[in-house]
């Protein structure tokens, strides 16, 4: 798989997400400041609720913007077996049931899903439980973690 192409797709997807978030933030702002939404009594909270929504949308927009910048500045490094798995590595793990997942260790945008060469790749960060467990591991090693009270074990099948 071409990591440079994957990186470009992540940046493009974050650009699209940024545009959507900016439109949502603008709409929430306009709703919050519209003259029809001025509170007439203490129970009239539409304007207040819209302002909370606008604030949240503005924060989300900034998170996406910062994530996109992080990816634009990301240096793709090849896998170094001596250092183990690091940020910018593409990792394939296999669960005990034989199912495989393809994970890109990125600086931000955890949960983002990108399809490349008909393969679904999920972005995770070193801050996630699985990301923490993978950092420094090598091909062939196992990682085990407990999520929602259930122990999950994965084998690192491939790293690039």
Overall number of strands:
6
- State the strand order across the main sheet: 3-4-2-1-6-5
Alpha carbon gap, first and last residue: 9 Å
The helix/strand series, from N terminus to C terminus, equals HHEEEEHEE
Helix run count: 3
Helix/strand class: alpha+beta
**Major sheet:** 6 strands, mixed
Strand content: 15-25%
Q: Considering DSSP H and I runs of 4 or more, what fraction of the residues is helical?
A: 40-55%
Which residues form runs of ≥5 with pLDDT under 50? none
**Nearest-angstrom radius of gyration?**
20 Å
Mean pLDDT: 90
- For this structure, the quaternary state is single chain
GO molecular function, one term: DNA binding
Organism: Pseudomonas laurentiana
Keywords: Elongation factor, Protein biosynthesis
InterPro entries: GreA/GreB_C_sf (IPR036953), Tscrpt_elong_fac_GreA/B_C (IPR001437)
Outline of the structure:
The chain folds into two domains: 3-72; 90-159, Roll (Chitinase A, domain 3). The N and C termini lie close together (9 Å). It is an alpha+beta fold and 160 residues long.
What this model shows, in words?
With 160 residues, this protein is α+β, with helices and mostly antiparallel strands. The chain folds into two domains: 3-72; 90-159, Chitinase A, domain 3, CATH 3.10.50.30. Helices cover 40% and strands 24% of the residues. It is built from three helices and six strands; from the N terminus they run ααββββαββ. It has helices spanning 3-33, 46-72, 129-134; strands at 90-95, 100-105, 113-116, 119-124, 142-147, 150-159. The protein has a six-stranded mixed sheet. It is elongated and about 65 Å long. Residues 123-159 form the Transcription elongation factor GreA/GreB C-terminal domain. It holds the Pfam family GreA_GreB. InterPro entries: GreA/GreB_C_sf, Tscrpt_elong_fac_GreA/B_C. Keywords: Elongation factor, Protein biosynthesis.
């Amino acid at each position: 798989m071409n990591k440079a192409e994957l990186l470009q797709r992540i940046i493009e997807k974050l650009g699209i997400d940024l545009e959507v978030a900016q439109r949502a933030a603008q709409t929430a702002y306009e709703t919050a400041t519209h003259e029809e939404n001025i509170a007439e009594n203490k129970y009239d909270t539409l304007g207040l609720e819209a302002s909370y929504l606008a604030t949240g949308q503005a924060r989300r927009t900034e998170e996406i913007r910062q994530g996109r910048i992080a990816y634009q500045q990301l240096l793709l490094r090849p896998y170094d077996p001596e250092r183990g798995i690091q940020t910018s590595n593409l990792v394939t793990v296999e669960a005990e049931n034989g199912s495989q997942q393809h994970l890109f260790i990125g600086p931000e945008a955890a949960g983002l899903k990108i399809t490349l060469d008909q393969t679904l790749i999920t972005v995770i960060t070193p801050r996630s439980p699985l990301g923490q467990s993978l950092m420094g591991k090598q091909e062939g090693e196992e990682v085990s973690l407990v999520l929602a009270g259930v122990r999950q074990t994965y084998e690192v099948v491939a790293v690039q």
